[in-house]
Amino acid sequence: MLRYITAGESHGKALVAILEGCPANLLLSPEDINSDLARRQAGYGRGPRMKIETDKAEIISGVRKGKTIGSPIAIMLPNKSTELFNTPFTQLRPGHADLAGSIKYNQKDARNILERASARETAGRVAAGAVCRKFLSEFKIKIESRTVSIGGVLSAGMWEKMIDEAREKGDSLGGIFEVAVTGAPIGLGSYVQWDARLDGDLARAVMAIPGVKGVEIGLGFGAAAIPGSKAHDEIFYDKQKGFYHKTNNAGGLEGGISNGEPIIIKAVMKPISTLRTPLQSVDLATKAPSAAHVERSDVCAVEAAGVVGEAVIAFETARAFLNKFGGDSLEEVSSNYTSYLKQASVL
Ligand SMILES: Cc1cc2nc3c(=O)[nH]c(=O)nc-3n(C[C@H](O)[C@H](O)[C@H](O)COP(=O)(O)O)c2cc1C
Q1: What cofactors are annotated for this protein (predicted)?
Q2: Is 81 exposed, middle or buried (0-12, 13-18, 19+ CB in 10 A)?
């Protein structure tokens, strides 16, 4: 079973991701991970921290002589920016976990909430996802993302100006990103049980990205406004291509199973919660009205959220792939995959 967890605080020593269940004999180097980490730190509207941190992965287990050996892969991302770790604050920030987290964990210093609830943790998800991406590339499965809109505007030419204006006002912006998986075979996921559905796994993984407030697969919410005759993708057959569709409103998933078309997922990211012109709030210690705590922050991080989206989708796709074609070495998985493709082409 493929699984991963992350550990680490935003301004602590380091972030750590542990990925277990990756087959042996996959070529893996820190560079495979660093390129995705760099993309997570990029994008117009990012805050000053991105200039301080240049994430570099240290693979501390699971790899020998440049290849995975089947044991858990631990990846460490040392933090350069640690100076805020000991700075307490109590002016709760709306839109963050500060209020609910402080009460839930019985904390008097909201720093204890911020440090783990911060989206800095998504660097760990990106590291684990990069290994999954490398695994999937062995089977010609690719995952890419793009920004669809910022602040409700589709035209990319407007975005930098809008982000600059938001920054000047001490405000922030959200938007929509899309992730596409191409090259996935028919048959990942299943309808036989609710928790076997790949659509459910993908939606959960994307919804769990900090700041994401809505997820769509294929036509998504657009399907509510059109009749069935326009919503569903008709099926065709060609001797060379096999079964195929001319449209992809289903976003590559039918009955919770990949149907051979690109898997298309969109997500809405709310505007960044930390505002330089702070919102009204309450001080956790005194209960008196107070402006929210301000800490250096992004103004807009939709592009970076798309990179995190790629990572969590890479993990879910790799997990579904291994559930179906599982093996302990890359060779065993390849042989299972090839035999399935042979069986499917006979149909
Ligand atoms: C890549 C990325 C970067 C983010 N950067 C910031 C940031 O700099 N400041 C901020 O307030 N929120 C940022 N967020 C969003 C918050 O982490 C998120 O809104 C907060 O943790 C509350 O979680 P929720 O919005 O899911 O409820 C970022 C999210 C992502 C995915």
Answers
A1: FMNH2
A2: middle
